[in-house]
C-alpha cells in the first residue's frame, strides 16, 4: 500500500535528506587513491551520528556497513573493507540516514582521480538519466512514465539498464511501496499524488544489463565485468512536480 506523507512527516524526511547530503559531500572530499572503503564508512557513520541520525543500512538485514561502497564493476551493496581505491577507479557510495524515525536515501558514483573518457560518459549519462526520470515525477502522471523516460535516455546512449534492482517508496521504513523499475512502457502503474515519497535510482551498465551476486551474498557485480554507475535521490511529489530531499551539492551543471 502506498501512503502519502503528511507535512510533518515530510519535514522529518527533509532533515534526514539534509544529513544524507552532508554525508555525501563530506565523503567526496576524502575520495582519493589510497583511502579504503572501510575508512570512508567510518567517516560516513561519524557524520550521520553527529547530526542526531542513525545509519539506515547498518544492520539492515545483517548488512555490516553504514554505507554501501561499490567499486568499478560492483553495482550495489558493496561491503566496506580494507580495499584501497586506485587512480582511475570509480566508486558508488549509497547512504541512508534515519532521523526521528524517518529515512532518506541517496547514491552517487564518483571518479577516483582521473578516469577515462568512456567511464566519464557512463557517469554523465547515468546521472542525467536520473533527472530525465525526475522530470516525469509529477502529480497525475503514471509511475512508469519515470521508468520509461530513464530507459529511453540510457539506451539512446548505448548503455543498458539493470532490471533486477529498482527504486522504491520510503518513509518510516527504508523500503516501502511502490517498487519503481527504471525500464518499461509508459502510462502504467499507480497515479502519482502529492505526498508520495520515492527513491529514484537508475543503475546503468556499460555492457550488458545482466548482474550477479558474489559469494558474500551482498555484493552485486556486472555479469560481464564491465563498469556500472548508480545515482539516486529521495523525492516527494508536490502539487506541481517533485522536491528533491537529498541534494548532494555536487550535481553537474546540467542537472
Structural class: alpha+beta
- CATH level 4 superfamily: Creatinase/methionine aminopeptidase superfamily
Largest β sheet strand count, sense and barrel closure: 5 strands, antiparallel
Which regions have little confidence, pLDDT < 50, spanning 5+ residues? 250-255
Q: Report the top-level CATH class.
A: Alpha Beta
| Number of E-type strands | 15
Beta-strand percentage range: 25-35%
Q: What share of residues is helical?
A: 25-40%
How many separate domains make up the residues? Answer: 1
Strand numbers in spatial order across the main sheet: 8-7-9-14-15
| End-to-end gap | 32 Å
The CATH topology assignment is Creatine Amidinohydrolase
Tally the helices: 4
Cα radius of gyration in angstroms: 17 Å
- The averaged pLDDT comes out at 96
Question: If classified by CATH, what would the architecture be?
Answer: Alpha-Beta Complex
- The shape, in one word, is globular
Order of helices and strands: HHEEEEEHHEEEEEEEEEE
List keywords for this structure.
aminopeptidase; metal-binding; protease; Methionine aminopeptidase; 4-stranded antiparallel beta sheet; 255 residues; Creatine Amidinohydrolase; alpha+beta; disordered C terminus
Describe the protein in words.
27% of the residues lie in helices and 25% in strands. The chain starts with 6 loop residues before the first helix and ends in an 11-residue tail after the last strand. The longest helix is centred in the N-terminal third of the chain and has 24 residues. The protein contains 4 helices and 15 strands. The strands form 4 sheets. The protein has a 5-stranded antiparallel sheet with strand order 8-7-9-14-15. α1 runs antiparallel to α2 and α3 packs antiparallel against α4. It has a single domain, classed as Creatinase/methionine aminopeptidase superfamily (Creatine Amidinohydrolase), CATH 3.90.230. It has 255 residues and is of the alpha+beta class.
